[in-house]
Specification:
This protein is globular. By secondary structure, it is an alpha+beta fold. 24% of the residues are buried. It has six helices and five strands; from the N terminus they run αβαααββαββα. α2 crosses α4. The strands form two sheets. It has a three-stranded mixed beta sheet.
Length: 171
């Protein structure tokens, strides 16, 4: 199965847009990533708990899990905060650029689809790529509350990830 078909099966409601990608200078990227790690992620998670509790319940979280998130500012290990427009390409830490989604298969599939298109792109270079762009907030997969999808069900995307890892790529 092709990567295009695979991504559309895993993330059926996420539009894939043509996106002009330009690598941002590393110090800028690092400063934004550090700010995200040091507090923006936590602030966004708490904001979503306060304003989108129903969406978290639709994502399959129990009241106890949501209460724990509210206390700690940390998501359960199966969820992740994703930058819709990547920090590497001029994206920001604005809440309008962040989405909570499952690490697997959603977040992993998104990166396994987009990252190989960026291979070899240097600082200041531009390339138009197909970028999955979920809406800000909380992305709830159609099957999120019904089942955990076991690893190993995304062969085309996993093959791309293996190539990236062999070349020293991240994620």
């Amino acid at each position: 199965m092709s990567a295009d078909k695979e991504i559309r099966e895993i993330l059926p409601r996420v539009p894939i847009k043509k996106f002009p990608y330009v690598r941002r200078p590393r110090p800028e990227h690092r400063a934004l990533r550090d700010a995200f790690q040091e507090g923006v992620r936590r602030d966004f998670v708490l904001h979503m708990v306060e304003n989108s509790g129903e969406a978290l319940r639709k994502a399959g979280l129990s009241k106890a899990q949501i209460d724990r998130i509210a206390e700690t500012g940390r998501l359960p290990s199966h969820l992740n905060v994703h930058h819709i427009r990547p920090l590497d390409d001029g994206g920001t830490n604005a809440f309008s650029n962040l989405v909570i989604m499952r690490k697997y298969p959603d977040h992993e599939a998104l990166h396994q689809y987009a990252d190989p298109q960026l291979r070899g792109l240097g600082l200041g270079q531009r390339r138009v790529i197909d970028l999955p762009m979920p809406p800000a907030g909380i992305y709830v997969a159609d099957n999120a509350a019904k089942q955990e999808i076991p690893r190993g069900n995304v062969p085309a995307l996993q093959a791309a990830a293996q190539v990236r890892r062999a070349r020293g790529g991240r994620r």
